[in-house]
Design brief:
With 401 residues, the chain is of the alpha/beta class. The protein folds into two domains: 139 residues, Aspartate Aminotransferase, domain 1; 249 residues, Type I PLP-dependent aspartate aminotransferase-like (Major domain) (Aspartate Aminotransferase, domain 2, 3-Layer(aba) Sandwich). The protein is 36% helix and 15% strand. Strands 2-8-7-6-5-3-4 form a seven-stranded mixed beta sheet, with helices on both faces. A four-stranded antiparallel beta sheet has the order 11-12-15-14. Strands 1-13 form a two-stranded parallel sheet. Helix 3 packs parallel to helix 9. It is globular. 46% of the residues are buried. The structure holds D-malate.
Length: 401
Amino acid sequence: MFRINDNFLKLNQSYLFSQVAKKINAYKSNNPGVEIIRMGIGDVTRPLAPSVIDALHKAVDEQASFDTFCGYGPEQGYRFLTEAIAINDYQSRGIDISPEEIFISDGAKSDTGNIGDILSLSNKVALTDPVYPVYRDTNIMSGRASDNNIELLPCTADNNFVPALPESNPDMIYLCYPNNPTGTTLTRSQLKEWVEYAQSHGALILFDSAYEAFITNDDVPHSIYEIEGAKEVAIEFRSFSKTAGFTGLRCAYTVVPKELKGESANGSLISLNELWNRRQSTKFNGASYLSQRAAEAIYSEEGKKQVSETINYYLRNASILRDGLKKAGLTVYGGINAPYIWVKTPDGIDSWTFFDILLTRCNIACTPGVGFGSAGEGYVRLTAFGSYEDCQLAVERLSLL
Ligand code: MLT
């Protein structure tokens, strides 16, 4: 009989957001008239920017003519997009990233999940706790977690959500800042410590900056490459999902600098840029032309303005939620440089019980903190991606707690 990948049996029974959705749906079907305010999964609700819509229409029309029709594109992404990213997201900030170091994909979830393909299964891994479950689950799936190879770095109110440097000498370190789920940040000098750690320990940092567009504080870096030497030790993941509302459209990118090298079994130094290119050209046929033209449009003058208006809309929601939660007597973190608010449950109530209380008393759906890891126990996460009106209503409903 054929064998399955037994590593899958080591995972939680279902993916966190599927579990949350199941609970909400069950509650809804038992209480049909109830309007639930959805602040669970971090999914955007504002329509795409007009510039993006225009670009999509144009790209669709191009598919109707022999002259402009597109079949397979480059697996790495179209040059028009990698160039726009290099110029606008990096070079304009004084960071030397070239289009050849940028790989377009259909999402940061896929890229952060797939990157392990080019890294040894014997590598030790460090994850912050709580953590975006994709990093943990994909390492478990691949078997990298088999010999307790994962070190968890607790991030709680006690350490101001700043992880201590690892003790187990990990080879791969996942950092997500602004952080999902806590909504907290690392300052430039705090991130510098991680880059220096990676340099001195021969580690690779997998830096997820999917929420970079929400940064409002000057001392919070937008890219790990703002830190000197980071190009030799870090891969950066970015996404148009939260930046420009592409959760349905799908487009993201990963930066693998040319300087970044890892060791092979025989001790030679190998370019990760070449390995990722090899991996992508074998397993991926590129993000669609339509989504890449749509992504390009956010870098036009109009596009930039429109996208930043939407970000500000969500940030205003976050601020309303923070204030409302505080008024309701709760302790909150995040929500200033991120669309997530991390809420301490009252009276030591566990995450799932408080999830139920919020759902049944206030008809607000959140995500239980413990779903992101054991250090998330005693917290829940709310997202600011809903409408302004729903955020105000949610604040009113908090008085029912
Ligand atoms: C979240 O809610 O954490 C995100 O929506 C998940 C994701 O981006 O995949």
